[in-house]
Automatic annotation (TrEMBL):
NCBIfam families (UniProt xref): acid_CoA_mut_C (TIGR00640)
Stated name of the protein: Cobalamin B12-binding domain-containing protein
Organism superkingdom: Bacteria
Listed InterPro entries: Acid_CoA_mut_C (IPR006159), Cobalamin-bd (IPR006158), Cobalamin-bd_sf (IPR036724)
Start and end residues of each B12-binding domain: 4-132
SUPFAM superfamilies: Cobalamin (vitamin B12)-binding domain
Cofactor(s) listed: adenosylcob(III)alamin
PANTHER family membership: COENZYME B12-DEPENDENT MUTASE (PTHR48101:SF3), METHYLMALONYL-COA MUTASE, MITOCHONDRIAL-RELATED (PTHR48101)
Species name: Microbispora oryzae
Keywords: Cobalamin, Cobalt, Isomerase, Metal-binding
Amino acid sequence: MQARIRVVVAKPGLDGHDRGVKVVARALRDAGMEVVYTGLHQTPEQIVQAAIQEDAAAIGLSILSGAHMTLFARVIELLREQGAADIVVFGGGIIPEADIPELEKMGVARIFTPGATTQEIVEWVRAAVPASV
């Protein structure tokens, strides 16, 4: 059996706009990855629990609400607390360029801003995220 990359994709917080995250989830799936989309209005606790239960190698967060600093920080904190800091965290959405260096310092591997192509996201995930057996 060939190893595949397993990714949990989530919409944390109160943001209800999910078209973009569904497009990304489909692109990752079409590229041969296993994708679990947790749906709208997920808490960081729910997202981390899903990633651990699904034995995911990565979590992709889509945030358009402006709460990216808080939500990314909480997901990374919970991963560390659960001994799962090896899960790669990346994301995208409406995130100001000025916030990206701080997100990277806290442990976010990559932020995709509006205009990123699905091919760019797929290629980055393939290069940055280990496959599961």
